[in-house]
Structure to design on (144 residues):
């Protein structure tokens, strides 16, 4: 019985490792300068999308929130999903108190009570000095 169980486990491990190794990785850029900086805006493997941090050059926090989440919606639409597909978001901000005051605006981009797991972190500075906010996400593409 133990020998048979060991054989089943070995077959399962071999099968599963083959599935992971053969997953295709797709990369997509939205701007030509992304390659200059050495990253892809979106990496898709299997049914998972990894979206690099998105920032905005808008002058206000409201403008940056709207710009960033509108771009996220555009990316998700390209893959046939909406913000309900987001399972994880990491938000970096240079002013967490200001971001807290904009919770309703940020939440307006999601269906009520369909929010992703989130981490919100205040940092000293983002890539550009005028950036107040940067959002990266992980989304799952579900078949409808």
């Amino acid at each position: 019985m133990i020998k048979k169980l060991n054989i089943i486990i070995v077959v399962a491990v071999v099968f599963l490792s083959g599935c992971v190794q053969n997953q295709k990785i797709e990369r997509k850029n939205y701007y030509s300068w992304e390659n200059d900086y050495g990253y892809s805006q979106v990496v898709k493997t299997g049914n998972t999308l990894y979206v690099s941090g998105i920032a905005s050059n808008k002058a206000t926090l409201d403008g940056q929130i709207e710009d960033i989440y509108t771009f996220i919606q555009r990316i998700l639409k390209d893959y046939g999903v909406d913000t309900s597909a987001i399972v994880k978001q990491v938000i970096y901000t240079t002013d967490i108190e200001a971001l807290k005051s904009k919770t309703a605006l940020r939440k307006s981009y999601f269906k009520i009570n369909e929010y992703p797991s989130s981490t919100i972190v205040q940092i000293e500075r983002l890539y550009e000095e005028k950036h107040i906010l940067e959002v990266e996400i992980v989304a799952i593409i579900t078949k409808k």
Summary: Helices lie at 2-21, 33-37, 61-78, 96-100, 103-107.
